[in-house]
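Standup, Tuesday
Yesterday: got the pipeline producing structure tokens again.
Today: sanity-check two examples.
Blockers: none.

Example 1:
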Amino acid sequence: MGRRQDIVAIVRSTGFASVVSLAQHFRVDTSTIRRDLDRLEQQRLIERTHGGAVPVKSADGRASSETRHRAEKAAIGAAMAERIHEGQTVLLDSGTTTLEVARHLKHQRLTVVTHDLRIGLEIAKRRSMHLVFIGGELLPQEFAMWGPTSVQQIDNMRVNVAIFGADTVLDEGLYIRASYELEVKRHMRAIAAEAFFVADSSKFGREALFKVFGFEEFTAGITDDTLDPIRAASFPVPLIRVPARRTPESETAIDDAAPERRARPERRATVDSEAGPAI
């Protein structure tokens, strides 16, 4: 049972583990690993996917990610949507904050490209907008498509603006928890003339394993005004801070991002929402 416990720990820490890599790690046959994964899935400790396994998410885990920091994400989404011009082609990354960007788009002439099912359904409601949906394989317990089919479709496109979310924002750039999203995100960035990132203040300073982008890839980022302004000014790209209309419930949902709100030596003037340049 020790090996199976270790497998669960690896899957939970990395977000994805392939059969081949696990077999090499434990020095056993791939058939042995497949039996282990089958058994662990029966015990609801992992989720099998093509070629490996991902962590199991609780039934309410997905819902909580959509409702946590809702006011902040809505304000960020509105601010980003205002900076998109009529007639542009916009690529929206998967995520709850980019979903808020989609919800706040009021344009009459816009092409939206996405690999997120929720964003696709949101844009499909807008008769005036053109939706291009990126196909592929649906990530387990997620709403995003991925895989070689997705990459091939992305590589045949060109967009004006790409807007990315992140699991974590650190001093070195944007990070995600699972490596299987790296390829799709990087190919999406490669087809965009410019890119922006959107992340609420709770994402700053969290732990994550895989760096997906450095800040040199972005024109600017948008977050909420809970992030310390001196901390925001320390990043090498403009970080636009927008106020959120918080209810008492949303105030209690702000998690312990306190270490990232401590003052640090100021290196540049903070870009506030009123001064944010249009795209």
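Example 2:
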Amino acid sequence: MQNTICGNRDQADRLTRPTQACCFCGFHGPETDDTRTQKRWHAIGRRLIVSSMLLVFATSDFLPVQATDTDSSTSRSVLVDAAWVMDHVDSSHVSILELGPDIRSYREGHIPGAHFVHWIDDITAPSDRANYTVASPEMIEALLRRLGIANSTTIVLYDDLNNRVSTRMFWTLRYYGHGAIRILDGGRQAWSVAGHEVVSETTTAQRSEYKIARTLGKHRIRMNRIRKQLGRSDIAIIDGRSPAQYTGETPGTVYHTGRPHDQSGHIPGAINILWQDNFRLDGTFKSSEELRQLYEDRGVTQDREVITYCNEGLHAAPSWFVLTELLGYENVRLYDESMAEWANNPELPVKTGDQP
């Protein structure tokens, strides 16, 4: 009788030969010419696997992320806590950016290793700062090169403005195709509450060769496209401003200039979901369950195209971030010029009152 175990061998021959175990395939049996050949091939396979694993670790940005939420139905890996940031302040694969309106607060104390990014001058188009329009790819590319950021760098964002600027910068980086981006959940306050140190030294970096290879247009929408889509039931438009500005009771103003718009009210068809409703009182993002209910109860479901706007594309960013990054919506666009453009164009419709 013949048995086939990694090759055919006589039963008696198998009983008289010493047995050998193969740790690669689990075979346990007598050593034969065939099994010796198979073992050699298995040894080669093991070496190839180990070499491949070493190559991956050596060339990739392998950074385990401690998510700040335990909800298994969605991925919240884009949010990190203060402990995670503390563990990576010295990592050459990580660049930490503090976003703010004034470098003086940065100089008074910031997370060790953090670079300062001005929330207007560095990330908005110089020719259209009144509308807070996203900066050109050349401008963002120059900024990231100056900060020593590579295309493979994990960028960690934080601010002291309830993550409004961090989510806008996140959108900007995603729009220009950067992959590894994180937000410190709770911002500067979370760092302070955790008791970690701050430093006053300005962080320096060696210039990089960052290159923007593509623009992801699916994340942005312009005025003309919105105008053509007004009235469509498959589109949800979210106004992230205060209820008083939404209804037209008070005029909308550009956040960083304070200039009131020519027209008061909202884009016809838009619903009002205040940007602050995405956060807990401590500035951290609400749970995925709470956020999903917040939007679905207002009819913002995953089968609809979603547009977010506000006065200048800053307070629209939290909703874009939550829907796209935390809840997995696939078709969400931010209108970065927002009402700074729309409400100052007399040819565009604006509606008052509390109804869409």
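Quick observation on example 2: The longest strand covers residues 94-100. The domain at 220-342 is CATH 3.40.250.10 (Oxidized Rhodanese; domain 1).
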